[in-house]
Please model this.
Amino acid sequence: MSSRGGGRHLAQKLVTAADAYQRAVVIPHCSSCSKPCCRLEPLVLELEWRQLKGLWQIEESRRAFDKRLDAGHGPAEIRAADGLYFAHGKVCPAYDEAGRSCRVYGQDLKPAGCSDFPVYEDGDAIIADLRCEAVDLADLASRLARAAGPGYRIVQAADKAFPFLVTLLVKRVAKPVAKG
Ligand code: SF4
Ligand code: SF4
Model:
């Protein structure tokens, strides 16, 4: 990338293309998805306390809830760590199975991770999570390449520990060496 400003401009183009991909390809598939991510199997949902409280309709104070969780009497699908909560293994209470939709769509209660999944920005890269059956890596990479423009290519790398997470990085195409 030519400069910090140019790099940011390019990164913004990729984010815009990733958002457009979510809207054009992923979201239209959600209503017919065979493994909806909102069932939280195998996905883990990261929540702030206010989101957990609202979505799980917890009436007690955070302190009382944490105590109950520590004692093993909290919801079995919730774990606490580093000031956050993680839900896994049970359908999200905001998920409407019949309508295949989120009841808190567009609301503050919806965790950020829900909107990011399955294609999101991470520094200079775009990450694609292949646990979403709607993601077609070749199609996504070609859209990102088009967004970056001529002179760039997309390089893909799967995470070693979690191969369903694929990093897509934009690289300059090397200029041919001029011959004498
Ligand atoms: S896994 Fe993908 S297609 Fe399925 S519900 Fe989630 S975002 Fe939609
Ligand atoms: S908050 Fe909505 S989008 Fe997020 S897991 Fe629950 S139902 Fe799905």
